[in-house]
């Protein structure tokens, strides 16, 4: 097994420091790429970590309070174009692992019509516990897919090796459904953090994310991630492009 992780750039925006860090400076803006991860090299075929964003205007309207600069998505940053760069169609994706159920991470889940879908079990239970899903942080179309339309290919699971060399563990903090994905690559394990941290500076400054349903858990997440022995790739940190050229290894 020789897996590698490839960053697919799905758009970008800017977010102010008080959202990036608890108690951060609202006058400092941070570049926020939207990253979906393609994991290659397994016998099952190509795997995605998160599903990507297609409905940019809907996202920008819903997240206006945290976007210092709205999301812009170039034509080549659309998910189908990003997959085509690596020779895949959405129908060829064999599995989609969701780091959490926020719109920018799950919007296009219905594209991957042959994929197994992995989602945090206790996160999905929390997201669907409200009557008629009212008040849930997860898009209703996504919940409908997970528990109804695509229930036969959805695997709710916590803290398990879900595919050879790929394991997930629940982390919470940002949302009750937040989980991290560890991929065993040729260069050792890599951790896809989702939004458990937004940038590696959350670790280096010892400052948890400023957008957290459970701020105490978001702080605990720093300790969990700090103990990880390999590189950590958050979903909105340009480090993967700047330091690694977009793939690991
Ligand atoms: Zn996000």
Structural topology:
Elements: E1 4-16, H1 17-20, E2 29-40, E3 47-49, H2 56-62, E4 69-72, H3 79-85, E5 95-97, H4 103-106, E6 116-119, H5 121-127, H6 140-149, E7 154-156, E8 160-163, E9 166-170, E10 179-185, E11 188-194, H7 201-204, H8 215-226, E12 232-234, H9 239-244, E13 247-248
Parallel strand pairs: 3-5, 5-6, 6-7, 11-12
Antiparallel strand pairs: 1-2, 1-4, 1-13, 2-3, 8-9, 9-10, 10-11
The structure holds zinc ion.
Q: What's the quick description here?
A:
The protein is of the alpha/beta class and 249 residues long. 24% of the residues lie in helices and 28% in strands.
Your description of this structure?
It is a single chain. The chain is of the alpha/beta class and 249 residues long. The protein has helices at residues 17-20, 56-62, 79-85, 103-106, 121-127, 140-149, 201-204, 215-226, 239-244, and strands at residues 4-16, 29-40, 47-49, 69-72, 95-97, 116-119, 154-156, 160-163, 166-170, 179-185, 188-194, 232-234, 247-248. The chain has a single domain (4-248), classed as Ribonuclease Z/Hydroxyacylglutathione hydrolase-like (Metallo-beta-lactamase, Chain A), CATH 3.60.15. The chain has nine helices and 13 strands. The strands form two sheets. Strands 1, 2, 3, 4, 5, 6, 7 and 13 form an eight-stranded mixed β-sheet that branches. It has a five-stranded mixed β-sheet with strand order 8-9-10-11-12, with no helix packed on it. The longest helix has 12 residues, at 215-226. The structure holds zinc ion. Zinc ion (ZN) is lined by residues 102, 104-105, 195, 235-236. Zinc ion binds next to helix 4.
């Amino acid at each position: 097994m020789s897996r590698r992780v490839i960053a697919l750039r799905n758009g970008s925006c800017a977010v102010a420091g008080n959202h990036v860090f608890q108690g951060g400076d609202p006058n400092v803006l941070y570049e926020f790429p939207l990253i979906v991860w393609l994991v290659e090299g397994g016998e099952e075929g190509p795997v995605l970590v998160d599903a990507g964003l297609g409905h940019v205007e809907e996202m920008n309207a819903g997240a206006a309070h945290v976007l210092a600069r709205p999301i812009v998505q170039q034509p080549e940053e659309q998910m189908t174009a990003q997959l085509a760069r690596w020779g895949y169609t959405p129908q060829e994706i064999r599995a989609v692992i969701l780091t959490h159920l926020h719109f920018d991470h799950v919007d296009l889940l219905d594209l991957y019509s042959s994929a197994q879908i992995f989602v945090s079990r206790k996160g999905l239970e929390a997201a669907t516990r409200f009557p008629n899903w009212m008040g849930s942080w997860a898009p209703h179309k996504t919940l409908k897919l997970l528990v109804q339309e695509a229930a036969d290919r959805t695997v709710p699971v916590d803290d398990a090796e879900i595919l050879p060399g790929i394991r997930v563990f629940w982390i919470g903090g940002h949302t009750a459904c937040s989980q991290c994905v560890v991929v065993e690559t040729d260069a050792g394990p890599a951790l896809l953090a989702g939004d458990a941290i937004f940038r590696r500076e959350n670790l280096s400054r010892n400052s948890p994310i400023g957008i957290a349903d459970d701020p105490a858990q978001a702080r605990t997440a720093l300790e969990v991630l700090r103990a990880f022995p390999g590189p950590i790739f958050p979903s909105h940190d340009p480090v993967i492009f700047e330091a690694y050229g977009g793939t690991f290894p």
